[in-house]
Amino acid sequence: MRETSSPVTLCCRLATLVAAACLIAAPMAHAEGPIVIGASASETGPLAVDAGYHLHGLELGIAEANAHGGWLGRKLELKYYDDKSDPGTAVRLYTRLITEDKVDLVVGPYSSGITQAVAPLFNKYQRVAVDPGASLPDIFVAGNEWNIQGIATSTGYLEGILPLAKEHGAKNVAVLSLQSAYSLACGKARHEQADKLGMPVVYDTTYALPQPDFSSIALAVKNANPDVVVACSYYPDSVGLTQALQRVGFAPKFLAATIGPAEAQFTSAVGALANRIISNTTWWPSLKTPGNAEFIAAYKAKFHEDPDYHAAATYSAIEALGAAVKATKSLDQTKLRDWLMTHEVPTVEGMFKAGPYGIGTQFKQYMFQIQNGDRKLIWPKDLAEAKAEVPYTGH
Amino acid sequence: MFLLLLQLVVNGVLLGGTYLLLAQGLNLVFGVMGVVNLAHGAIITLAGLFTFWFATTTHLNPLLVLPIVFIVMLAAGAGLQRVLIEPIVNSGRKAELLSLMVTFGLAYVLVEGALDIFGSEYVSLPDLQTTWVIGGLAVNEALVVAGLLGAGISGALQVWLQHTASGKTLLATSQNQIGALSCGIDVRRMRAVAFAVGSALAAAAGVLLILVIPLAAPTADTLTILAFVIVALGGLGDYQGAALAALLLGLVQSFVGYYLGGNAEYVVPYLLLIIFMIVRPQGLGKAGRPIWSEKR
């Protein structure tokens, strides 16, 4: 005899079926969802200008990957928050990205100082992070297992300026460094290089931001009368120092600043004072790296401005991460870390290759000079587009 | 050596002139209303960023903005006072705390507005960057203009407060509100005037500051703190004391920055504040009062 189900029983069975379908469908829906890449970005604060390029590179890298079908058949999605150029805020944001938002992958933030603060977090949560904003080598030392440097090291910033200046008869040096992790490493390296080259360092100081006025530092530089002034700086202090030197009526034969002159805003901020300033870059438009021309064209089309090396570094980080995901066919953090630590990836910035403890080994440093409004690569000599114009005139 | 010392003094005096204008608006608002306007730095920054936008868009002299923002902020300041501050003035002892919260909120709104309108980047103007070298002494056009205009506007404020009927009325209100009320002064109106003039002075400081240092929306907090330090060093509500404090700060920063470097220069304002709080809490001026004074 066939039993007839009561309406209540039918409802229960239906509910069970729906629940079972949901349980089966949930992982499938997740598998087909986007791969979420988490990052903090300094949209505000003193690092905002340079970090803006950092974020653009990240956005473009993800957009280009999506245009080519994404990774593992899934689209990519960027989830980021503004860290306000503050390391403490960045730590909170990455914790949120990893533990609450449960992003699939992370990319390191902009600046060495902020990466230094969040790097232990990546080690704690065992999340592989390519760090395209961390030039400071001190992050990639014994104890670090999950951070991989995605840019050339800060000790090489402006490493060509002193040999170049010496060739032109420069005899002594002033080194100015911002109180930040990368700047201090850069300043120390240039000081030691000057000692080795037999160029006395006649003035060496550090300063903090926001600095209300650079006049006193500029006056001290003027009084020391160096042939070369090397500023291991970010954008706002590069502008402030350049203006202050002019205000005290001093123009060294060589004026070099690490970060700032690469950005278009620098020339509009200091006007004619930008002419003949020398600066540092880890990427250049004329480099024959794979995909470089396409990167520049896509960047200009998307953001209506020229890219700089910060953008190239984050774009390259996505290229490296994508290569690892495709090669391992996985989002498993250990597999990705092991692959990235042991493989080379050609990127627009150059060859991505990790050394011991994740330090970058193949990215290179270049120098350019602003010559009548144009930025020309002047070092190394085999890649130079123009010879250095000497002296810096300060007008 | 003499030339170097003279250069440090000139730099310090010019920096002091800019600092003076930075602080006078805050001082006026505090003196009359007993309100520490935490949105002071935001108004300065907003005016500076507007000046940058004006100068780069029109290619006109950035100083043309000065009278415009001064008048606009006079009106806006009066409006803000009526809408935001006046309703909480009679809240008794809670008034100070409430006014801090309101101006803190206003600062956030202004900074976020500046971020949306002008972006978050540091901006700087390449105008007025001529440097004159006179007998070995370098004098920069932007510093001279900012320093002299800053001192000039502060001087005009002094003349208005000391030698005109309306100014004396405002000064009387700042010295003793109950006394002013008993003399028939419309204290409510004076509070609106003080906040309006204070806001206009802050805006004028922003126009001059963008000529001297790079500014960005997030700089607002630093400027509020700096202005507060100058006002506290001068003695709260003491305009001549604030002038002395601004001059002192400019000079000390100039010398410390030269002899001890940028890091030491950065901490000078806060170090001076600590020293003054211990040694001379009433500040440099004669009429100033300590920050914990309840006298109004």
Rounded to the nearest angstrom, the radius of gyration of chain A is 25 Å
Major β-sheet profile of chain B: 2 strands, antiparallel
Distance between the termini of chain A: 103 Å
Strand order of the largest sheet of chain B: 1-2
Element-by-element helix/strand order of chain A: HEHEHEHEEHEHEHEHEHEHHHEEEE
Helix content of chain B: over 70%
Strand order of the largest sheet of chain A: 7-6-8-9-10-13-14
CATH superfamily of the largest domain in chain A: Response regulator
Number of extended strands of chain A:
14
Keywords:
heterodimer; A: 395 residues; alpha/beta; Rossmann fold; 2 domains; seven-stranded mixed β-sheet; five-stranded parallel β-sheet; globular; B: 296 residues; mainly alpha; ABC transporter involved in vitamin B12 uptake, BtuC; two-stranded antiparallel sheet; 3% strand
Report what the structure shows.
The complex is a heterodimer of chains A (395) and B (296). Chain A has twelve helices and 14 strands. Chain A is of the alpha/beta class and 395 residues long. In chain A, the strands form three sheets. Chain A has a seven-stranded mixed sheet, with helices on both faces. A five-stranded parallel sheet of chain A has the order 2-1-3-4-5, with helices on both faces. Chain B has a single domain (2-279), classed as ABC transporter involved in vitamin B12 uptake, BtuC. The N and C termini of chain B lie far apart (48 Å). In chain B, helix 1 (2-33) runs antiparallel to helix 8, helix 5 crosses helix 6 (165-175) and helix 10 packs across helix 11. Chain A binds chain B through residues 43-46, 48-49, 52, 84-85, 176, 179, 205-208, 210-217, 219-220, 223, 235-236, 239-240, 243, 246-250, 265, 268-273, and chain B through 4, 7-8, 11, 15, 56, 115, 119-126, 129, 131, 133, 138, 140, 142-143, 212-214, 216-219, 222, 226, 253-259, 261-263, 265-266.
